[in-house]
Amino acid sequence: MEHLAITGMQRLAGHVSVNGAKNAALAVIPAALCAGGVCVIDNLPMIDDVKSYIDVLNRLGARAELLDNHTLRVDPVHVAPVTADFDSAKKIRASYYVLGAMLGRFGEAAAALPGGCNFGARPIDFHIKGFEALGAEVIVEHGVIYVRADELKGAHIYLDFASVGATINIMLAAVNAKGLTVIENAAKEPHVVDVANFLNYIGANIRGAGTNTIRINGGERLRGGDYTIIPDMIEAGTFMIAGAITGGDVHVHNIIPKHMESVSAKLREMNCVVDEDEDSIRVRAAELLSPANVKTQVYPGFPTDLQPQMCALLTTVQGTSIIRETVTDNRFQYIGELERMGARIHVDGRQAVIDGGAVLSGTDVSASDLRAGMSLITAGLAAVGETRLANLHYVDRGYEDLDEKLRSLGACVERRGAVKSDVGSYI
Ligand code: UD1
Question: Rounded to 5 degrees, what angle do the CA atoms 106, 21, 311 make?
Answer without folding.
Answer: 125
